[in-house]
Design brief:
By secondary structure, the protein is α+β, with helices and mostly antiparallel strands. The chain has ten helices and 16 strands.
Amino acid sequence: MSTSAKRQARRGPSPLVRLAKTLYFVLFGLSLVVVIGFAALKLFAPEPTVDDQVTIPPQPAGPSAPPAVTDGPDASAEPTPLVLTRRKGVHTCLLLGVADMGGSDTIMLGVFDTNAKTASLISIPRDTVILQDGKYRKINSTYAGGPEAVVSAVHELLGVPVDSYVSVNLKAFSSIVDQIGGVWFDVPVRMDYKDPLQDLVIDIQPGYQLLDGKKAEGVMRCRNCYPSADIGRAATQRAFLTALVKQTITLSNVANVTSLINTFIQYVDTDMPLSDMVFFATQAIGMDLDAALTASSLEGEWISPYWQLDDEAVLALVNSLDIYEEAVPAQALRIVHP
């Protein structure tokens, strides 16, 4: 062995070689952490368990319905419940937007097909008429009984299971938007509204612009800015939520994760377990929201003082969600017309 080779052997590997080995082990370690972490998420956040079948009881008689048969051959006949089978991998969640004054300003049903990697967001107009305890009322009035009461009302109205709810104070949108540096959004109409009782001032010009938190909250809340009131607002809310999600889930917001979680804890009430949230988050990774997310509203017409649903259109929409293996029959829905 030459003298130079002996010196190199005594000194050990060159700094470049040592650096390369260090980087190799660091990258290997990071890769291992990622693989183990993802495996742990999948292990400790399994797919939520839901009932395979949904039983829908017979519809109750409305206030103007004829009296029940109490004698004769049909007196003992009991209405038969409807049983529908859920498709595997399809989950639902009710999103409620709540203002400080109380009451639900926003009601949306989310449907996530984890197998097809598709999602639907359905707006339910707050003035939709329902039948409850033998009386007609607006669906948003059920919030007086808490989120669970709205869940029950939506389940009965549409005949679909509601696995969980997420109730969000509308101020959460203001906080989240400020934390990510604003949201670019095309405001569809001039928004000019004042409500001293709620200390609410909305003054936003139409057009594509960067919204700060205060303006974002105004966009979500402005109802009298549209000729169609809640219907117009619901369409804008769906569009804004889509823009917010797209612009929040970016690498530039990684540093904001802690503050966003704190906002979630402060402003959100939900019955969804943390393991379910982790599961849905892992399933949503890589989804193209432009192609995978569809948004719509329950069709109908305004007949004061209610939004009355279009029976055929709503039934077609429910069937398009593909929640059940079978086609959903009309009797599964509880649509009423005063």
